[in-house]
Amino acid sequence: MLSILEGLFIFIAVSESILGVLGNGFIGLVNCIDCVKNKKFSMIGFILTGLATSRICLILIIITDGLTKIFFPDMYSSGNLIDYISYLWVIFNQSSIWFATSLSVFYFLKIANFSHHIFLWLKGRINKVLHLLMGSLFISWLFTFPQIVEIINESRMKSGNATWNLHMQRSKFFTKQILLNLGVILLFTLCLITCFLLIISLWRHNRSMQLNVTGPRDPSTEAHVKAMKVLISFIILFILYFIGIAIEISCFTLPENKLLFISGMVTTAIYPWGHSFILILGNSKLKQASLRALQRFKCLRWAEQERFGMGNMHVHRC
């Protein structure tokens, strides 16, 4: 039987999942419509669509895995369900982080302003850099899948009250988890480095503009400040995501600690839905599309009210 606090955390996790699917689905839909209209797929459109798709799948895996462990532990520990979830988790978790890293690298090379020759060389070869990152994703998969097979074979869950315990020493288990997530850790580190460098570049530009302009801040300065806020928010959410994953992994060695596991699930789910709304608010195309969608929703609601005699003349303005 779940406690009130555990039930509240599960409700929050499910709500985060719904918001995440809606937000990322909107991003993917807008970019697909834009691709159809322009009859071409830009690099940024490809990255955003891939990021949204992988995150939708990741959210569904997170919530399915968590709810199955909580409500149907016997089903989870028996059969091949844990195998399928583990393989899908590896694919979509690494894909999501790869697309997030590619997005940060893309913005870094497009927006940042450094005079170092290495940066200038990379800036002129942005497509090749992204293709190189894609190759690293496939290499990470080739390295990871044998590791996950070994962990699954050695770490079958016990039955009864110790369902969440593993037949493996903790030190060996955590060592294998580090090796399993080595590619993810490297991508995460690269993403943080590019984000911090981009923040430094934006901060330098903003400081230079403030020193040279005595009047109110111009739109360019406001845009740079907004970009810095978006990047800082992304970094915080990204770190929370890895903290949540670490909590969930540690729960494998802590029997029946459901509250800790649920709190890890809530923390993990913050990033996929939170960053999607940050992208919508920070991207002018996505923001305008969301405003148009809200306007149409209001018009439909007013039209519905008018149909039942409860509306007003605002419906004719839509």
TrEMBL record:
Subcellular location: Membrane
Keyword line: G-protein coupled receptor, Glycoprotein, Membrane, Receptor, Sensory transduction, Taste, Transducer, Transmembrane, Transmembrane helix
SUPFAM superfamilies the UniProt entry points to: Family A G protein-coupled receptor-like
UniProt GO molecular function: bitter taste receptor activity; G protein-coupled receptor activity
Matches recorded under InterPro entries: TAS2R
Membrane association type: Multi-pass membrane protein
GO cellular component, one term: membrane
Gene3D superfamilies given in the database record: Rhodopsin 7-helix transmembrane proteins
Transmembrane segments: 6-29, 41-64, 84-109, 129-149, 178-203, 227-247, 259-282
Pfam families: TAS2R (PF05296)
Keyword flag Membrane: yes
Keyword Transmembrane helix set for record: yes
Family stated for the protein in its record: Belongs to the G-protein coupled receptor T2R family.
UniProt-recorded name of the protein: Taste receptor type 2
The species this protein was found in: Ursus americanus
Origin organism lineage: Eukaryota, Metazoa, Chordata, Craniata, Vertebrata
